[in-house]
Amino acid sequence: MMSKKKLNVYGFTMVELLTTILILGVLMGVAIGAVSWILDDADENYYETLEKDIAMGAESYYASHRGSLPKSVGQSRTILIKTLVDQGYLPDVVDRSKKDCSQSEKSYVKVTKSSESNFRYEVYLDCPSYKTEESASAKTVNINVSFSAGANPSATINVSTSSDNQIASYQYYIIQNGQQVYMSESITVGNSSSVSRNVDLTGYAPGNIKIVVTAYDVHGTSKTVTKEQNL
Predict the structure, then answer these.
(1) Which residues, including other chains, have CB under 8 Å from residue 154's CB and lie 6 or more apart?
(2) What is the structure's pLDDT at 136?
(3) DSSP assignment string, 50-82
(4) Multiple choice CATH, 141-230, 2.60.40.1930, 2.60.40.420, 3.40.640.10, 3.20.20.70
C-alpha cells in the first residue's frame, strides 16, 4: 500500500506582510507624485498658452484702436477680457474645467508703453480654478521735491525706485498762486532707477508755488506728489 506524502504549506510571516505593504505604499506614493506632476505641468502649459492667446487678441484690438494705447513711456492702460470676447477679438475664455474666465472684472489685459516704439502686454486672469498673481509687478515709485529760495529760486525733483526696477518717465507742472502756469512734456528716462532735475522758478517768484510730479516705472506703476512753497 502506497503511503501518502504530507504537503507542507507555509503562510506569510508578519514581517513579510509588512514589507510587502511598505513596498506597495512606496510604489503608490511614487505613482501619485508622478501623476500629480504631470497634471500640474499640463495646467501650467494650458494657462501659459491661454495667456499668450489673450495677449495676441489684445494686440489685435489695439492695432485697430491705436488711439487707446498709452501715450507716454511707463504709462499703462487696461482692457477687460470680456470686452475682447464681446468684440470678437477672442473666443470664449475658459479654465481647465471649462468654466468661464471672462465675466470677472479682474480678468483683464494691461498694456504698458515700455519704450517709444514698444508695448508690453500682461494678462491677468480671475477664473474659478485659476488666478494670476499680481504681486510680482507691484513696485514702489519715490518722488521728492525740494525748494531753494533766494535771488534765483528753484526746485529740485528727485524720482527713484528700487534697484531691481527702473523709472520709465515722469512729468511735472507748476502752479503759481493757484493757477497752472507751466506743464512739461513727458520726460523719458532710460535704464535708470533714479533721476534728478533742477527747475528754474525765477520767472514765477515771488508767490505761492506748487510743483506737481507724476512718475511711472517700467511696470506701469505711477505716483503723483505735490509740494508747495512760498517764494
Answers:
(1) 147, 148, 198, 199, 200, 201, 202
(2) 46
(3) HHHHHHHHHHHHHHH-GGGS--STT-EEEEEHH
(4) 2.60.40.1930
Q: Is the peptide bond before 153 cis (omega within 30 degrees of 0)?
A: no
Nearest to 147 by CA among 226, 227, 56, 84: 227
Predicted pLDDT of residue 177: 93
SS3 214: strand
d(Cα 73, Cα 188) in Å, to the nearest integer? 6
Integer Cα distance of 152 and 150 in angstroms: 5
Please name every residue paired with 109 in a beta bridge, in sequence order, or none if there are none.
79, 123
pLDDT digits (tens, 9 = 90+) for 39-91: 456 677 888 889 999 999 999 999 999 999 988 888 888 999 999 999 999 99
Task: Tell me the domain boundaries of the chain.
Answer: 43-137, 141-230
Using one digit for the tens of pLDDT, what is the confidence trace for 124-174? 999 998 888 764 445 688 999 999 988 899 999 999 998 788 898 999 999
